Amino acid sequence: MLSRFEELKLIARCVAADDRDAFGRLVVEYEGGLRRFLLNLTGNDAALTDDLSQDTFLKAYLSIRTFKGISKFKTWLYRIAYNEFVDWKRRNREVSVDDEVVPEGHLESGASSDAKIDLEHCMASLNDIEKSIVLLFYIEDMPVKKVAEITGCPEGTVKSYLSRARAKMADVMNR
Description:
The chain is an all-alpha fold. The protein has eight helices and no strands.
């Protein structure tokens, strides 16, 4: 885990000397969490996740000079990833998450498969913005303020979406 100072030092090297090795260290630091976030958003589509991750890091590299350092680099990077996902959805006019069917072929067998099925059904009941907010808040363990920065929603709206998402997921579990 990079300290804030180390992170800023790497970013400064990227900006000042176009240091690709420094950017590579940032990629290594954040790619796991970013891919997990995108994998959940894309409904476990690994190929799409790879494409969106690559596009995210490419955009981040090309626009790193615009990073002001006000928020953490991770927040800025996740905002780019979220925008890439939203842009992809717009371009492809994909079926809403509410209409998606969970493919059964990729589920694991055993006791954990029941929990996974329940979680997938719960997540499928959420619309894209609710799903994004739930993933950022619960899976990526980001505070409401950071979730608001990434999604571009006011903090109160993020809290409302979280509440609504919890209610929807509880409803699915109770059925």
